[in-house]
Amino acid sequence: VERQPLARYTTLGVGGEAEVWFVADHAQLAEAMEAPYRILGGGSNLVVADEGVPERVIRLTGPLAQADLTPDPQLSTSGQVVTGWVGGGVPLPGLIRKLQKLGLSNLEGTVGIPAQVGGAVWMNAGTRYGETFDGLHSLEIVTPEGTRQVTPDDLDWGYRNSGIPRNHIVTRVRLRLRPSTPEEVLARMDFADQARKGQPKMKTPGCAFKNPGGGKGAGQLIDEAGLKGTRIGQAMIAPEHANFIVNLGGATAADVLALLRLIRERVSVPLELEYELWPEGLG
Ligand code: FAD
Ligand code: EPU
Predict the structure, then answer these.
(1) Cβ neighbours around 223 below 10 Å, total
(2) What is the pTM of this model?
(3) Which of 160, 178, 264, 266 is flagged as catalytic?
(4) In this predicted model, what pLDDT tens digit does every residue of 50-67 receive, in sequence order?
């Protein structure tokens, strides 16, 4: 347990201090959950208040950040590989590379998402070439009330949404994969990666808003409102892609929140935030 600036753990590089609890097994997790807590993944979708948060912030480490990709003989068939447990704290990019080398398909559409497995599952991270739930067999969810195992069929999931309540911790999952070849998986990964060409390379938590269904995407709407390149403090709406806010160096959560408000004032279509705000009422 250590008090640390959460800026260190977010891809935006913003956020004040909190008590960070590193948990490596279910017993440590149960102890950490004895007081109000939050669960932190890769910090790649987070805007944390400059004051930090009062709750304990849990990080999964050790075995909960390791992946057993051995096919489970009971659950696997000739057309489908079901893996052993993959920890919620496993970084998704490394996992995707390993699956590619093994020639296992279903998750390569999520290439380039800097999440941990638990965070990717929690919001069903994805691209137009595939989403996390495409490769999910089952998952273990821990709350202060206990541990349960569920399958995707038990959850009300959809676009950027798993249906799992906040602070229900995805501790580990089993993946459901399709045997393919390393070459084929690599080709699909490269193809999906092309869609990122226009995304900024700076510190950011990814897309700020979900795409409203039907018509234009959030990026196009913000772009058409003439907001690309708009800057408040050290935060800026990316000139490359209007649905990304970037940290120019030393941005504060307040800068980012002010930009989010400005976007909502200027864009006539209601936009649903994709970022998670800590605390939730922030801004
Ligand atoms: P965090 O940001 O740490 O947390 C986000 C939420 O998930 C929080 O509410 C947190 O409590 C919860 N959470 C984290 N871990 C767990 C867990 N183990 N159990 C339960 N809840 C948990 N997203 C896309 O969908 N598609 C993209 O193409 C995409 N591209 C991106 C590109 C860049 C450069 C960046 C920075 C982000 C991008 N994102 C994208 C956004 C982000 O990567 C996803 O939202 C991702 O799912 C966040 O996962 P995380 O582990 O970083 O979660
Ligand atoms: N566009 C503009 N101006 C902009 C940005 C985009 O006109 O500033 C136009 C593009 O020209 C294109 C269309 O909008 O015609 C769609 O843009 P893009 O291909 O960049 O896709 P997106 O819908 O903006 C989505 C996801 C990304 C994901 C990419 C690639 C959402 C909110 N965003 O972006 O996910 O990486 O597709 O598959 O669903 C994220 O969720 O954090 C994220 C980065």
Answers:
(1) 17
(2) 0.97
(3) 160
(4) 999 999 999 999 999 999
> Among 108, 140, 274, 276, which one carries the catalytic annotation?
274
Mean pLDDT confidence for 77-92: 97
The candidate with the shortest Cα–Cα distance to 130, out of 120, 122, 119, 141, is 120
Q: Which of the ligands is closest to the CA of residue 241?
A: 2
Amino acid at 180: S
User: How far is residue 241 CA from its own chain's centroid?
Assistant: 19
Name the 3-class secondary structure at 141: strand
Can you read off the two tokens belonging to residue 233? 């403090």
184 is catalytic: no
Distance from residue 67's CA to the centre of ligand 2 (Å): 30
Catalytic site includes residue 160: yes
Distances (CA, A) of 177 to 70, 72, 75, 84, 154: 12, 12, 11, 12, 19
Strand partners, 158: 161
Q: How many CA atoms lie within 13 A of 172 on its CB side?
A: 20
pLDDT digits (tens, 9 = 90+) for 102-157: 999 999 999 999 999 999 999 999 999 999 999 999 999 999 999 999 999 999 99
| In contact, 211 and 272? CB cutoff 8 Å | no
Paired tokens of 10: 């977010």
